[in-house]
Amino acid sequence: MSDLTGSAVVATTAAPAPPSPVAGRMSLWLVLALVVGAYGAGASLAFEGFGAPSVVALFLPAGVTLSALVLNPRRRWPWILGAVVVTEIVVDVSYGMSARWAPGFALANSVEPLVGALLLRHWLPAEVDLRRRRDLLVFLGCCVGAAPVVGAAIGATTLAASSAAPWPQAFVSFWAGDATGVLTVAGGVLAWRYSPDHTSGPLRWLVSVGAAVAATMIGFWPHDIPLFYLPIPVLFALAFSQTLVVTLTAGMAMTVTANLMTSTGHGPWAALDTSEQLITMTLQLFLATTILGAWTLAVGVAERDRARRDTSVERAARLRLHALQVLTTDLAKAATSAEIADAVVREGLGLIADHGSVAIAVPGSTEIALWTSPDVPAGAEARYRRMPSSTATPHNDAIRTGQLVLLETRAEAVAAYPHLGELYQALEVSSTLCVPITGDTGPVGSLAFSFHREHGADPEVLAFAETLATLTGQALRRAQSYERERDATRQLQQALLPALGSGLGGIQVCADYRPADVAHQVGGDWYDVFAVPAGRIGFAVGDVVGHQLAAAAAMARLQSALRILAQSAPGPARVLDDLDRASALIPDAGTATVGYADYDPATRLLRYACAGHLPPLLVTGAGAEYLWGGRSLPLGVAPAARDQAELVVPDGAVLVLYTDGLVERPDEHIATNMRRLADAAGGLRDPDAETLCRHILEYMVGDEVLGDDTAILCVQFAGPAPAASVAHADGRIMPVPSGGG
């Protein structure tokens, strides 16, 4: 009976508004055939198993009809009720009932489910979740309580008229049988339809139903031993440990078994010496109370589990929100696309996935760059670090189409991307989601989320992934704009570095420049090395107040002016005098400091002068000492004649010219750091220009983020050479620039 009823309900499954997909796919005739089959089987069971001279009046078809009405759209109700009426009359007549009175019972058994369905849908117009207390109370009040009263009134009237039975006793018997049928059949069917059980396998169902039937048979077998309570602990244990659907199915099996046992003369109710109506009412009341008790326990357990699940989900949501806030902060700090990808891999992907990766299209290229989560094997990470955009991967497809790529099983993923099958197997990936990252002109990258479980991308994961992609896209737009600006300023900085002329023998030079404005890589500090008349070599270091492009522009003009003035001036002091007057015509060049020197390789005579600039440091085999001569005020401060100093430098000596960013720190006195600089330079044994430059930068700066631009120029007087060269601190040998920025 339960299997037939279940099949009928599945076939006719539909909510009144809108109809369910199952009902929409089934023809009306198939629905009617299933309803007629289930109803006829239940009615025949009532006659064969619970009929005269039985005292039992359990009527399971009452639950079949109610289920069919509730689960089908209202346009089908007249057909269903018509089929029920015809089936009821045919069954009644076939079992010997007079055709005169059969329509009365058919009317009772059609009006009753109609009233129950109308009342239920009035109070619960959407899905009926019998795991909720409110839905359960509405179902009990409308379908188990009120509707059987209407059917019992009509049925008792028909029964009293046809057999002269007392109306009150007939009413009680009719109501108890129909109410129990609705409770067991319709309750189980509605619970199955709106709360499907995908976790219980066939064996669990078989064991649960078998335990309920066995306990009922044992409890209802003897007359004189009170064992009828045995099904109660079994059903309650099922309610506590199994789903509601399994519990109600076991309850229906218990009810049918108890009625069959009683109708065959077994159990305590069959031995009672009282009226049939009282026996019927008390038996069905006992069974209904047992089922309701187990049902209530199952609802309580479900609410507890739902509360725990909701708490867990809420806690996970809070953790994700906090992590998202941390990630948002990291994205705001990230300046480049690589830093953004690192932040997303580190903070974002693991919030919802077991593995993940970030792909970003490389500007001006046909490749994508890939960043993977740390648990990806190093070989795979290296293999896919750069990929042509034509390679068939979820990342490339998401970027190309601008649509998410969802692969819900490993078989689906391997079928779509066979060459990734080995990687999916190594990472135990069973489902994958790839979401595009949208930029100003379309997709600029994508985020991939991989899961060990199949169907890992539920709606919550999808929503979070799209939010993360949106945040990443916003950060990438900002970073790529910055990167374009940075590339442009780097090109500008290189354009400001004049090329070195030829014929500068007798020196070796190493120089480096580190701007405080890391974002733009430009600033106001500079260095220069160039030829001047009479075979001399000029070199200078300067510092324009400020950073960024304005300081760089002033620096370029000041450096060019110094080069021009040095071609005709008799010495460094005169160069700075003329540069002082020229600086008045250069915007943002006021209070600039300059250190300038010229060197004659033939006589080894070094002449130098400093306009407000820090003293050069001369490094020889005897140590390091500052050259304090030839000092004057910064440019543009006050007109005054400037001094210069001179000395003959020993062979192999290195002159270190630098700007204040090398020795000035907010929390330290400049004299302290100047001593550190002298100690660092003088501590090396016979250094060359490159070694000394690298050593000074490592000792004085290291990886420190500078608060001021820093330029350093190391000139080694090493005798004549065929052509001068500059060795940068990174080890590259390049032509000596005439300015830096």
Give an overview in words:
The protein is an alpha+beta fold and 741 residues long. It is built from 22 helices and 19 strands. A hairpin with a 4-residue loop joins strand 10 and strand 11 (605-611). The longest helix is centred in the middle third of the chain and has 58 residues, at 276-333. The chain is rod-shaped. The chain starts with a helix and ends in a 7-residue tail after the last strand. The model is unreliable at 1-24, 52-56 and 720-741 (pLDDT under 50).
Uncertain segments? 1-24, 52-56, 720-741
User: CATH homologous superfamily of the largest domain, by name?
Assistant: PPM-type phosphatase domain
CATH arch. level architecture of the largest domain = 4-Layer Sandwich
Major β-sheet annotation: 6 strands, antiparallel
Indicate the percent of residues in helices. Answer: 40-55%
Number of domains: 4
Distance between the termini: 91 Å
Instruction: Please indicate the percent range of residues in DSSP E strands (runs of 2 or more).
Output: 15-25%
Cα gyration radius (Å)? 46 Å
User: What is the approximate shape?
Assistant: rod-shaped
Q: What is the level 1 CATH name of the largest domain?
A: Alpha Beta
Order of the strands making up the biggest sheet: 3-2-1-6-5-4
- What is the number of strand segments? 19
Residue-averaged pLDDT: 81
Question: What is the SS-derived class?
Answer: alpha+beta
CATH topology of the largest domain: Phosphatase 2c, domain 1
- Count of helical stretches: 22
